[in-house]
Amino acid sequence: SELNEESSFTYAATVEVIPEIPDIDFKGLTLKKPVYKYSEEEVEHQIKLLSKNMAKLEEVKEARPAREGDAAAIEYKGYHNGELIAETPEIDDFQIIIGSGTISKEFDEQVTGMLPGESKEFDVTLPENHPDRQLAGKTIHYVTTLKSLKEEILPEINDEFAKQIGKFESLEQLKDAIRKDLQANYDRRSEQEVNEQVFKALIERTSFEVPEKLINYELDAIIDEIERTYAAYDLTLEMTGQTHDELREKYHDTAVKQAKRHLILGKIIKQEDLSISEEEMDQEFEKIAESIGHPKDLVKQYYQQSQEQVSSLQYTLLEKKAMHTIIENSIIEEVAPEEEADEQTAEAGKGEE
User: Fold this and answer.
1) Which domains does the chain have, with CATH numbers?
2) How confident is the model over 155-200, as pLDDT tens digits?
């Protein structure tokens, strides 16, 4: 019917609102902080990885069999039930690092021991989790020729090596930088585990329904991140044999947990009347600039192009400040990682009783 502007009317609408959460008693939580420490073995492992990254490939001069770590140029055809597979047509001079599992670990094992110029036929059953779902789990018959071999020549690990890596004057300076990075990673891990304890405790102290809209928002963010990760490897969700519906079901509980965390932190922000000063924003711009190697003014200018970006950064800092406020008002006991893990296992056991 037509709407008469001079008469009154009523209407009904269904909207989702942020749940009203009572004030949260967050003070006095008892938290166990695992204390992790890097080892010198880890430092040496990182040095070896850097060394491999700087390795040069040189043609193998003597006649010797292919071995793990060699860069092999191969020509191959793949057949399934006697038919050439469209996904693996005949390929000339395909480069693989033996042992890396570029095609599959089993394929590498078959190439190991071959001599340049040698041809070989063999069957390989590809794993069920193979990135190409069309080939996953299938037994492929390969006709392969090893055309040439190159081997890694590792640089000598000394002060000169350190200078080539970056702004280091000596090998010891490089090792100090690695030690600092390793410890920073361990400290972040420890912080994350403490944060998990905080949310576990606060979720138990609060009771509220999470709006479906917030759950869907978190699910969208999770799936977007998964798709971006796949895209970095030139893969799509469809190529992995997964669907959006399956992922939404798989990560539903995670999304609910994340939404609860944001709501709880939002309540603490409001409850404690927290805010972010211009000075704190400026300090954050400085940190970002330092981490990406750009001038602070350029970073600041980038964010200030959009009020939405500024607001997002401000709210991220507010959530960090809320978490800091909770932890600052908690009782923290430093423990060995094994002790903290044992207690978590015991807690899990109680939950199953």
Assistant:
1) 30-40+165-208+274-352 (no CATH), 56-153 (3.10.50.40)
2) 999 999 999 998 899 999 999 999 999 999 999 999 999 999 999 9
